[in-house]
Amino acid sequence: MTSHLGLPTATPVGDAYTPPLKKTSVSSTSPPQIPEFQHDEVESAGPAPTPPSSTVDTSTRAEADSPPPARVPAARPHPTAPAPRPAKGREERPGATTVRASAPASGEQLFVSTAPSGRAGSWTSPRWWLSSLSGGRIPPESRRRARLRALNEQITIPLGEHHRTAVLSLKGGVGKTTTAVGVGSVLASLRESRVIAVDGNPDRGTLGDRVRRTTDLTVRDLNRSVHEIQRYTRMRAFTSVNDSRLNILASGTATAGHDQYDADSYKVTADLLENYYDLVLTDCGTGLRHSAMSSILELAHQAIIVLEPAVDAALSASSTLDLLQELGHEDLAGGAIVVISGVNSSTRRAVNLDEMVHHFKSRGHGVVQVPFDDHLDAGGIFEWDALHAATQEAYMEVGALLVRRLTEG
User: Fold this and answer.
1) pLDDT tens string for the chain (409 positions)?
2) Domain boundaries defined on the chain
3) N vs C: which end of the chain shows fewer Cβ within 10 Å?
4) Number of C-beta neighbours around residue 67 at 10 A
5) Under a CB-based contact definition with an 8 Å cutoff, are residues 205 and 283 in contact?
């Protein structure tokens, strides 16, 4: 079978699962005073400086030198000549492009070699020899293709346990739901496991609007029918599935004074989903002190904080980390993955993006910038094939970082 992203995968089998992984406490220090994210008035309005190498910035990453994998659209290919062999007597050590994040307490890098066989197109790469022997009829592997291959390898690392991830933001309209669907789509398409995104909003959330609904049933209906569900086929009646194999469990609107979705309700949902899914991403509401959020945070193994590249959104995201610590979830705060959604040249001029990235890298586990995308801006049904290549790669970055974090936890 071939994955939706054009990479090999297999169909999950069986309904077996293992008990949820116990959360491991991550040491946390007092949060630093939030910096000024706004540019000084005397600063030029020209393009922002290039982010440091530790920043995962997909909005300005160079595009492919040769056609990318199937179903991952890329910019028009530009043929690149193979790198020359080193002169006789000089030995060139094979290099590997490395993307690093600000080193956490353990000092480990976020991403390792993106080209295990040597630089893409270099004379050390087997693909280069194939290209040379074929007279150029077989093109050398592009750097982007090598990077996508490396991300795929990280995303598909076996986990062996059931994991829950909370996707958070105190500010609405910053791309939180879109991030949950985007990252969930990557994981569902590439991994040999079942993945579901759940709308954990106590009111009516918008997660169900991002998929072509095949059922009107919601998470509240699921909870009322929990004792009737004994098989995965019955469970599937409550979810809709997108073209990346991501299951989506929508929320509903509670009637006045009845059917409230609270802490106990989410625990019922979580216990049931553990029987049938390996990875659960919960699209949370904006109120971290709501009853349902207490259970969501208590059961979560990982947190993803989403913001847009704006000063107020950055302040809100920093407050989210503060509140997680205040509520006793230092492990989630210290290991949080921060996603800056909707980055473009205009926002780079409007805010001090480098300072914003540096601030959140110092407080969490990593930062990924997702570029502005017309398809996401429309706010309708999420379709992977409609995304720009850089946006697809950004969500793969988040997915790889999430899996790495879960394996470490």
Assistant:
1) 555 555 555 444 444 444 444 444 444 444 445 456 665 443 444 444 444 444 444 444 444 444 444 444 444 444 444 444 444 343 443 443 333 334 343 333 332 333 344 444 444 456 656 666 666 666 666 788 889 999 999 999 999 899 999 999 988 889 999 999 999 999 999 998 999 999 998 888 899 999 999 999 999 999 999 999 999 999 999 999 999 999 999 997 665 455 678 899 999 999 999 999 999 999 998 888 888 999 999 999 999 999 999 999 999 999 999 999 999 999 999 999 999 999 999 888 889 999 999 999 999 999 999 999 999 998 899 999 999 999 999 999 999 999 999 998 6
2) 161-408
3) N
4) 15
5) yes
Residues in the chain: 409
Class of the domain covering 161-408: alpha beta
Q: How many Å apart are CA 7 and CA 23, to the nearest integer?
A: 31
Those residues with Cβ within 8 angstroms of residue 312's Cβ, 6 or more apart along the chain or in another chain: 171
Closest CA to 10 of 19, 1, 18: 1
- Residue 274 DSSP SS3: coil
CB atoms near residue 13 (< 10 Å): 7
Count of CA atoms in the C-beta half-sphere (13 A) of 281: 30
The DSSP symbol for 346 reads H
Cβ of 43: how many Cβ atoms within 10 Å? 11
Q: Which residue has the tokens 């690149």?
A: 80
And the tokens for 17?
A: 């699962």
Give SS3 for 209.
helix
